[in-house]
Each structure stands twice: as structure tokens, then as C-alpha cells.
Amino acid sequence: MVTFLMTVIAAGVGAYLSTYLREKGKNLATKVSRTATIGRFRRSDDPRGVESVDDCHCVTR
Questions:
Q1: DSSP character for 48?
Q2: What pLDDT, on a 0 to 100 scale, did the predictor assign at position 8?
Q3: What DSSP designation does 55 have?
Q4: Which domain of life is it from (predicted)?
Q5: Dihedral sign for Cα atoms in the order 36, 40, 45, 46
Q6: Is the pTM of this model over 0.90?
Q7: What is the band of 42 on the pLDDT scale with cuts at 50, 70, 90?
Q8: d(Cα 61, Cα 46) in Å, to the nearest integer?
Q9: No. of H helices and E strands in the chain?
Q10: What is the separation of C-alpha 39 from the centre of its chain, rounded to a whole number of angstroms?
Q11: What 8-state DSSP symbol labels residue 22?
């Protein structure tokens, strides 16, 4: 009887932790995605942007 109860409790805790960690992972992925998106917009509005063609490192000479 004790073994059965321990098994049921362990299964319940495992199911709860699985769901909890899955949701935490989704939230973290959303936060990282949001941070990356905000970073892209912030860089495009950066006042220190390319001021001349000479400043652009993507131009080959």
C-alpha cells in the first residue's frame, strides 16, 4: 500500500513539474524573442548609425 501511494505521489509531482517547466520554457523563449526584436528596432533607431559610405563596413573596396 505504501509503495502504491509513493508511486502515485511521484507520478503527480512528475506531471506537475513537467507542465511547470514546459510553461517556464515557453515564457523564456517569448522573453528572448521579444528582447531580440526590441534590440533590432533599437539598433535601427540608433543615432550613431552609418553617417557616410566610408563608415559602412559592408561596402567592399
A1: T
A2: 96
A3: G
A4: Bacteria
A5: positive
A6: no
A7: low
A8: 25
A9: 1, 0
A10: 13
A11: H
If you search the block for the grid coordinates 563608415, which residue do you land on?
A: 55
Of how many residues is the chain composed?
Answer: 61
- Determine contact, residues 1/8, Cβ cutoff 8 Å: no
**Band (39; pLDDT cuts 50, 70, 90):** low
User: ∠ CA(33), CA(38), CA(41), 5° rounding?
Assistant: 130
Q: Which three cell numbers stand for residue 59?
A: 561596402
C-alpha cell at 53: 559610405
- Helical ranges in the chain per DSSP H: 2-44
Cell 505504501 appears where?
2
- What span, in angstroms and rounded, lies between the C-alpha atoms of 51 and 42? 17
Type of residue found at 16: Y
